[in-house]
């Protein structure tokens, strides 16, 4: 069995469904807990709470579709849920992916303004501004993702296939759309994020008056976002477009390029990694709300209860047998 066959038979039909199932279970619990914490500390968090709430909503749009995708790949790419639901499932994935990128970018910009321009800008920003920006993000993401719905997802000769891009007949047009989509939905937010945190890093290194805790929290958030983009988003966009380009070459030359096998395998792996954003996104909740400190307090509270209960148990006196 060569590498491509192994990825089709083992990774795509066994490992990928297992990843989807795990992400559904862990992501559901983590995001419920995260959103609950956001709502409990709504006033404390300030204007950034609106973006955290929308980040959670983006995750909940995608997580319910994972069991259906897991069943699809486990049944060796046999879609039994209908063509309309196939498009809805893929649309929800795109809303989650680009909505998450959009709101993570908003959080990064707000953090940047809070550190670099705390008096000039942050004092003028209200909750209304955050809500308006969130509405704009959803509109932009919807406009970017909606054309995907018009591309065929079900192959004419194989009605059980549910493409995450489109069928071979329309792959050339889809590649053009995908490249533009990648630039507007991923590259531009990535450049904004890099610009913000590049400047923040310079400010934190030059100014000694900034509180040490603020520096640490800013650097931690930067690390989390770099992790998200490096693991989930960058590989997916690179290998998705390369895979589409390989299919375009095959449709014109009737022959795949020599690098197709490597790209195919990398693209399969990136499809598993990209869905992990629904599990990694709650790390942003953990950072912003300093939940690790809350967990330590909770564990300490439970330990005190346990000790008090244990010490209150009467000690049995020794008895002669």
From TrEMBL:
Entry keywords, A to Z: Membrane, Transmembrane, Transmembrane helix
Residue ranges occupied by any G-protein coupled receptors family 1 profile domain in the UniProt entry: 30-285
InterPro entries, A to Z: GPCR_Rhodpsn (IPR000276), GPCR_Rhodpsn_7TM (IPR017452), NPS_rcpt (IPR027294)
Main location as per UniProt: membrane
Residue spans crossing the bilayer: 18-39, 51-75, 95-113, 186-207, 219-239
Gene Ontology molecular functions: neuropeptide receptor activity
Keyword Oxidoreductase applies: no
Entry GO CC: membrane
Compartmental location: Membrane
Domain of life: Eukaryota
Pfam families: 7tm_1
PANTHER family tied to this protein: G-PROTEIN COUPLED RECEPTORS FAMILY 1 PROFILE DOMAIN-CONTAINING PROTEIN, NEUROPEPTIDE S RECEPTOR
Name of the protein in question: P2Y purinoceptor 1-like
Species of provenance: Pundamilia nyererei
